[in-house]
Structures are given as structure tokens and as C-alpha cells.
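To: structure desk
From: M.T.
Subject: fold request, one chain
Message: Could you run this one when you get a chance? Sequence is below, nothing fancy, just the single chain.
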Amino acid sequence: MRRIFTVALMILVTLHVAGQLLVDPIQLGAKGDGKTDDAAAIQQAIDQCSEQGGGIIAFSPGHTYLCGPVRLKSNVVLFLASTAVIKANPDESIYHLSAFGANEGEGMLWLYADGAENILITGQGVIDGNGVAFMGKELDDSYELKPVTTFDPRPHVLTLTDVRNVTVRDVTIKDGAYWTLHFVGCDGVVVDGINLLNNLKIRNGDGIDIDHSRNVRIANCHITSGDDCICLKNRRESEKYGSCHDIVVTNCVMTSRSCAIKIGSENVDSIYNVLFDNCVITASNRGLGIQNRDEGTVTDVVFSNILLDCRLWSDVWWGKAEPIYVTSYPRANGNHKDANWRFPKGQTTGRCGEVSRIWFNNIQATSENGCFIGGDTHDKVNHIYLNNITLAMRKVTAYESGVYDKRPCRDEGFIRDKVHGIMVENASDIIVNGLIMDWGKDNFPNKGGAHKETNARNVIVKAIAP
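Reply: Done. C-alpha cells follow.
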């Protein structure tokens, strides 16, 4: 095993960072026994490599490196051997650095970098967020969250802020206690071939969050997540980094208790030039979602060649099995712990921006509910194109049919109606070209029609079958 590890490192050195420093944290005092906190030794290894202009931190096989917070630096490679594990220390008292700056109410930093470049995380090993250790009691389809006020000690797994040229490849990342991969203000991100396997019962357990970042490629990944699997957003805490754009996601398999692929809900800037292609979504509470709840805009987004399977879960999770969901509503007025971060400074109310020029091409969905498109006013959601959409309606749970979820929003969070293939509320220029409805052999409960419009303008539906 040690010889294989050495050969792998030699290849890595040859291909990526020939001539740079190679450090095993064990050489600097790490125990790798899964009991002792090895953060100091790991940080020392990173610092040494960074000071020498770059290098490899080699986590050797057969060791579990328990650790608290660690800061990554420029020109450093984390290489995890196939049986190496980096695991979050379950001691909540050691997490003090907020993942959102002055907003301490939404989790802390564990593995992180700020203002760096050229970071590579690779290998066949495991990064373990130790999520269940930070949870309350187990419920039917979730874990209870421990009570917090304005400080939440749960660690995010990897938070990279203002980093240029970052790659996460091949590793397994699992059991995050909060968000897992969070890229904030980054430029040039590659996430390729990873297994991101979060516990489906852990709330807020996002898979990959692209936040105010650009030039991002996500490919060939398997993601399971209690919250959103892949989410694009522009949070207010990081608004100085500008828009989120030029994003490609392809060849991924995802399962979520919330929304598998989502844009929003936080969006204080613009999100544009985005492509999701060739993906498979299974057993999710919502499939493809745009959930705009702030003043930012979402434009020029394409979803294509996607197979998805949705089903209902409890109201703990946002979503009502909508295969396609395009919305823009202002969020509820501020009256909660993070209100100061949801709205412009000094305000407790917000507004929602435009969602326009969105394409859904060649989508095949099986679900307990239909698609929902809606906005606060007609101009907020417009020019939405659905081409070659197949909806196989199948009732597989005992949860109520015909409910559409608008949360978070100011008014009633749910719309109750029949189950329609496509439900449109307060939107304009919605063009559907090719819609196949399959209601199954059984009598689908609360069955409606292929489409329904309420206070909508210029909705054109062509080629409905059967």
C-alpha cells in the first residue's frame, strides 16, 4: 500500500508540481488516529509549502486525521490516499470563524481559504464533515436542529473565498453538517469526478454552492444532499464580488430532499450564462428550480437533456415535487435571526428582480406534481421556453396532491389547486412547444389538465399529447 501511495505521489509531482515541497503531516506530529486533533500539524504543513512557493500535503493511507479549522493557502495541493480520511472534530467549541463574515448565524469555517490562488484537492480519499455529530435527535425524514440564536457552531466543509484557479477532483466528500463546497467570489473553478455524499436527513446540507463566482465547471459528479445539490446564488454578505456567471454543469447524478439544481433564493446581483446538461435526478423534492427572492436578476439559463424523478417529502423541506420551478417573489418581511443579512442595510423589506430567457429542452420527468411558473407581477417572470417536455404523473406517497410551494415569500406559502402539468401564475411570454402528459393507469388523485394559467399573459402551449 505504501509503495502504491509513493508511486501516486510521484505521478502527481510529475504532472502538477514537479520540484515542489512534499509534506506528510505525520512527519510534523500528526497522529492520524481519528482521536487526536491534527489541525496544528496540518496547518504547519500547509504553511511550509506555501512559504516555499507551493507543495503537496500528502495524507497517507490508513490514517484518519481528525482536525478543527484549517486555512488553505496558495499553490498547495491536498492529496488524499485511497484510505486516508480528514474528519471534522465534533467539538463545537472550537469553531469560531463565521462562514459568512459578520453574520454568525449560519455556520462556521472548517477547511477554508481567502484571497488565494492555485489550490488543488485530489486523490481517492475522504473528507468527512462528521455531520450527525452536530445534529439533534433523529426525526422521520430529517434531524432536529439544535437551538441557536445569532451564533451557529455547525462547520461548513470547504469554503473558498476570492480564490483563483481551484480544482476539486476525484475525492469523496461526505456528511457535511452545513454547506459542503462553497465557492465565494471565485474565478476559475473545476469540480470533477467527486462523490459528494451528504446525509439526506441533515437540513441546510447543500452540496455545491456557487456564490458570486464565474468560470465554473462541474462535471461527472455523484451528489446526495438533504438540501440543494447544486445551487447558484449571490448572497448579500459577499456582494462586493459582483455577479455569478459563465457556469457549466454536466454529466452529474443527484438526489435531494429539497431542490436538486437550484438558482437562488439569495440573489442580490445577476446570474447569467448558465448551462445544465446531461444530468440525472432521482427521488428529489424538486427537480430544476429558479427561486429568485431578492433584487437580483436571472437571465440566459439553459437546462437540457435531463432525466428527473421527484416525490413529496414533509414540509421541513422546501418544494412540492415540482419537476420545473421558475419563480420570482419578494421574501417575507424581516423578523428572524438573520433579517439584517436578507435585506439591504437598514431595511426589513425587499423586492424581487426579473427572471427572463430561460430554456428547458428535452426534459423527461416522473413526479407527483406538475411544473410551476410564477411571479410577483407579470414582468418579473417572462420569456420562459419549454421544449419537448414529458411528464409522467405517478402518486407514490400519501402526502396531499395539488400543492405548489412558493416559500420563502410574503404571502401564503402554498397554492392549492388541481395537479396540472404546467401551472402559470402572474407571468408572461411562456412558450411550451411539445408537452407529453402521461397520467398512468391508476386514477391520479386531484387530477387537473395539461396546463392552467392564472393572470398570465401570452402563454402559448403547442403540441400536447395525449
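Reply (cont.): Residues 2-15 form the longest helix (14 residues). Let me know if you need anything else for the meeting.
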